[in-house]
Amino acid sequence: MDLVMQYLVTGLTVGSIYALMAIGFVTIYNITGILNFAQGEFAMIGALSCVSFVNLGLPMFAAIPAAIILTAIIGFAVERTVIFPVRNRSVITLIVITIGVSTFIKGLGLIIWGTSPRTLQPVMKMGPIQLLGAVINPQSLFIFLTVLLLLAVLYVFFDKTFIGSALRASEKNPRAASLMGINTSSMSALAFTLAAALGAIAGIMIAPLTDATYEMGFLIGLKGFVAMVIGGVNNISGAVVGGLLLGVIEAFSGGFISTFYSDAIAFGVLLLMLFFKPTGLFSKATGERV
Amino acid sequence: MANLLEVKQLTKKFGGITAVDRIDFSLEEGEVVAVIGPNGAGKTTLFNMISCFIPPTSGEVIYKGERLTGRKIFELAHLGISRTFQNLQIFNNMTVLENVMMGVHVKLKTNVFSAGFRLPTVKKNEEIAYQLALDVLEMVELKDFMYKKAGNLSYGLQKQLEFARAIVYHPQLILLDEPMAGLNDAETNRMAGYIKELKKKGCSFLFVEHKMATVMELADRIIVMDFGKKIAEGTPHEIARNEKVISAYLGEEAF
Amino acid sequence: MAKLDNVLYGHLWRPFASLMVIVLLLPLFVKSSYILTVLILIGIYSLISIGLSLLLGYAGQISLGHAAFFGIGAYVSGVLTAKYAGSPWIAMVIGIVFTWLVSYVIGMAILRLKGHFLALATMAINIIFFILILGLDEFTGGASGLVGIPSLSLFQLNLGNPLYFYFFVWFIVFVIILFSMNIIRSNIGRLLRSIHDSEIATETLGVNVAKYKVIIFSLSAVYASLAGSLYAHFISFIAPPSFYITFSILLLVMVMVGGVHSIWGAVLGTAIIMFLNEWIRYIGQTYFHISGQVEIVVYGLIIILVMMFMPKGLVDILERLWKKIKSVQIKGAEKRKMTTEKGA
User: Fold this and answer.
1) Closest CA to C214 of C74, C126, C76, C113
2) How large is the ipTM?
């Protein structure tokens, strides 16, 4: 029982991170129709730049926002310089170009930060907490709270602010939104900026648990994809559930089957989802009006 | 004459809405049948069910005594049924000639291996395709454009091209989804001419169309739909005087 | 209609013969065994990129998992020859047949997906394959790799000699180019291009689109498997990192940079990226003292720039340049003709 609780806590912790990544994917995908393969690199930039800011002597509470803002700016710049000019090209071009962005950013990360892993000190400097038989790392608690807080903020943003509803309108129906006078081009930039910021937060939060390297973006990005697919590509709450679920699946398969194969199982789940529960995944070909 | 196509109690429901409601009709060999009706009458849904693009909720389509419903889209061409599209589906990046040669696919027996090893059948097949394509291009007056990229043609010529591609393998039944949409008068007349010419050769047509003059000129029989139901069926002459039809169309468009 | 082929598809022999001359003459100028190795690797990787060109450029289906099929070929060959002392040629055939089966089943399952989700599914397959070869270390040697793969020999000829192996690999490349070109220059090639333009229209013309997508997917997987077997026998040591997604991405870059709509583009792209790779590594190490995969910055930049400014790749630019030169020549000839006529 204790073990189950422990896996659950671990799974939900990691799952919250995946959820943040997945929200980033969903936001960009629904506004621009692009699955941003560079999303994971935003997490890498967030984590590593945060380490650098701390090393420069900034206190943690300043380093974190600085890293998030820096990443958001990079997200914005990527959208303006690379994505926006090619937005009407074929899906394959878009896939390849975001892979290019991802590779480029990863390479920059390598040049700036080198190959050795960097450690980020956890925000909460206290001992582990015992709860219902599980040992909870304070960082996990911090991650939970942050994700909860972020979800609340995102809810208010999407539901109560004008920009948020404009963003949502552009997700649902870009054409109608642009007819309503919403500038869908700036929505695309906003989506990338927001997704980059979320990615940065995910990276910063996971860094104290796993260490940060220039390569960390790839796997965390892919996990975000899986979370998005599990939850359904069209809604943010689905992405959150998908992320948590993936985290839990991984923790339990790691605990009860083998940690070695837990990644394989995660991607096996992705394939199974794609084969058997592809709601929202297939292109509209069959229902298309011809 | 034998029935080539029979539509029996064909019904499609989308959620709570019945888009097509128990439609019955048949098409004889060599006949040209038009389906008309106001916008939203369910014509396109009916058309897509007949061409196996969407499955019906109930009812079935019979072709030459065999059930058509439930077949895969690609099987239809092998049975001798062609179709065109309302919103044009030509291969933009291929030449006009290649577009039409694609239409010959069902007559060719090349597979990846015979092609890869360049067996003699490949060349023979290419020549068959080329010859058939040339004949049709001649007929629809596109021969001068045969090495042009299809995407660069005018809309009217593209429409002709799509038609040519659909008829190149000598199908028996040709389904046309608004063949005249977007064409000017001269182009409409030309298209009508091709249809008549093929009819003489024994081809049957089922088409959905908005332009009444064309329908009256071409169709042997007309099916009128409104709100998913068949409200009338008859010769152009009968339909033109049918009161139900006139009231359905009142305020829609002029006869 | 003897020339129907050329009318429809342009000339095949001109680029074919040019490449052949280059391949035959290069060893005369290349004295360093290091560059010969690069040339051999270009040949091996070209086999994969040619398949990807068929899949991506003609049938319009993306794959970010071909490193896995490359790996299947390499590991089947490697394990059967190094561990069980089997015949390399039989192992190669077993690898091909096995890859065909695996890719056929995978293809049937995933080729219903489109665009982004197809890319994602192929990546997932690549990752699962990677983890499997790490995990099945009893056979594959796991993370420490598989050593002692013998080199090939053909009749009495020892293909362990790099020069012989160079000719052997490029001979296979030419066979594969010819086979692929034959496919492209038939109604099958036309059909693949038409799938790219409009899947639904292709289907109504009587083409079982799903079947052809799977066939081409498997064919490209088989090319990759063949390349894998050759690679294993050439390098004699294989380890999992060579078969990870990073390599799948690199393959995609090669095809896109060269020009996805042309088999020549695939070969050209492979050659350019390989030389670029070596060059960057050299510059990085000699002048900047950076180790690791710094070349990925440049790759990333190249992908972005090529996709933004020349999405049809280098081969398209070369073709346009060639046409321009020709038209200038023709105009020049006409001018000369005119002046001579005037003079008369």
Assistant:
1) C113
2) 0.91
